[in-house]
């Protein structure tokens, strides 16, 4: 044995090299896309499958730029989908037709709420449809979540597998000024992270707020409540709202409130608090002001851990805010991939974005976008099972 492998150190080094080479081969990312039905008005939809070779798979459909599923291993290596959703296009188009819970979708042009559906741009008041009376929610009656996006490119590289989707929103779309061209690149990395890189430009002054609205359950899609999951949010403040979820304009400290997740805290511990903000939202549905500068490198915004499965997910972003939503409007009216009805508290959404109603609050970070400027933000969902 010593003649073949040399010294014990050489033997161990050889074993390590073989393991490393096997790991590299195993971690080879792949991307594929195929038809996934047509919308009720006949537009073809495709589904893109990204694999990182580490057991994690993400699927994105061109309708709404929706993250249809994310499959990743638990602590025992058992792979499960951790995103709420449907196994056919009709599930999403019917949801949209009802008004929408925005399962997994890209939200635009303006994520979150605009008071009364009105907003100023360069001193002129514009209007979009009121979809959550008395306010507009998530971009009008036909937001980005209800459009079919175009696959611009797919591929693999040393970082993982990716797809870039494109949507051109014409001037006046849903009441918003300017022709807006948006690209979103989804990359499933060999670091087990799914990143969404948003880039947008306009030919006239406008306002823009983009996010993703995936519903996460790290114990598995359809497995029930996320109340046992442990959440930490890197934020010392939040934006309080009135009874219609419109910010008051203040930034209040989370300390001493049910919104204080500065230390890891079980989600269910204070979910039924009688705090006024919690009563307004019927659970958690608030914008946390993420610590650290926005618009630079993505920084840690939050982390959620499921003690049942051993899965954890970090949320990193260079957006200024993080809207955290405990799926308070899921009422059993939808059944997911495995046929389980989705109910209140069965998932948690992490919507990295600008603050709600920012155009109507000059003290908030601006959401204005002008010709020659580029909207450029990244949000990362990084998975682990350690």
TrEMBL record:
The cross-references to Pfam families, in alphabetical order and at most eight, read: Aldose_epim (PF01263)
InterPro entries in the record, alphabetically? Ald1_epimerase_CS (IPR018052), Aldose_1-epimerase (IPR015443), Aldose_1/G6P_1-epimerase (IPR008183), Gal_mutarotase_sf_dom (IPR011013), Galactose_mutarotase-like (IPR047215), GH-type_carb-bd (IPR014718)
Catalytic activity line of the entry: alpha-D-glucose = beta-D-glucose
Q: In which pathway does it act?
A: Carbohydrate metabolism; hexose metabolism
Domain of life, per the record?
Bacteria
- EC number per UniProt: 5.1.3.3
Give the family from UniProt: Belongs to the aldose epimerase family.
According to UniProt, the name of this protein is Aldose 1-epimerase
Organism of derivation: Gluconobacter cerevisiae
């Amino acid at each position: 044995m010593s003649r073949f492998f040399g010294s014990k150190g050489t033997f161990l080094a050889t074993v390590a090299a073989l393991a490393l080479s096997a790991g590299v081969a195993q971690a080879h990312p792949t991307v594929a896309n195929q038809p996934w039905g047509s919308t009720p008005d006949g537009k073809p939809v495709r589904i893109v499958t990204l694999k990182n070779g580490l057991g994690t798979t993400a699927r994105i459909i061109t309708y709404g730029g929706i993250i249809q599923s994310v499959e990743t291993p638990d602590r025992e290596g058992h792979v499960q989908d951790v995103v709420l959703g449907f196994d056919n296009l009709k599930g999403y188009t019917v949801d949209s037709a009802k008004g929408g819970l925005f399962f997994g979708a890209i939200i635009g042009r303006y994520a979150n709420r605009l008071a009364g559906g009105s907003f100023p741009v360069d001193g002129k008041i514009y209007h979009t449809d009121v979809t959550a009376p008395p306010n507009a929610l998530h971009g009008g009656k036909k937001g980005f979540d209800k459009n079919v996006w175009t696959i611009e490119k797919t591929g693999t590289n040393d970082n993982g597998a990716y797809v870039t989707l494109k949507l051109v929103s014409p001037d006046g779309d849903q009441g918003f000024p300017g022709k807006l061209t948006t690209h979103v690149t989804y990359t499933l990395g060999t670091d087990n992270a799914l990143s969404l890189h948003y880039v947008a430009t306009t030919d006239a002054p406008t306002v823009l707020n983009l996010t993703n609205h995936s519903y996460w359950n790290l114990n598995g899609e359809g497995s029930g409540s996320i109340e046992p999951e442990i959440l930490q949010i890197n934020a010392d403040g939040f934006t309080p709202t009135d009874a219609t979820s419109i910010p008051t304009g203040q930034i209040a400290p989370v300390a001493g409130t049910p919104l204080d997740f500065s230390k890891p805290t079980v989600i269910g511990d204070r979910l039924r608090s009688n705090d006024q903000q919690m009563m307004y939202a019927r659970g958690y549905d608030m914008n946390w002001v993420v610590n650290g500068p926005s618009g630079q490198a993505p920084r840690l915004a939050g982390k959620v851990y499921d003690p049942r499965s051993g899965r954890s997910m970090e949320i990193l972003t260079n957006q200024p805010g993080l809207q955290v939503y405990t799926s308070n409007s899921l009422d059993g009216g939808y059944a997911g991939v495995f046929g389980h009805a989705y109910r209140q508290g069965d998932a948690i959404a992490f919507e990295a974005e600008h603050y709600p109603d920012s155009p109507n609050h000059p003290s908030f970070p601006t959401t204005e976008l002008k010709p020659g400027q580029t909207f450029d933000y990244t949000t990362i969902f990084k998975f682990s099972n350690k």
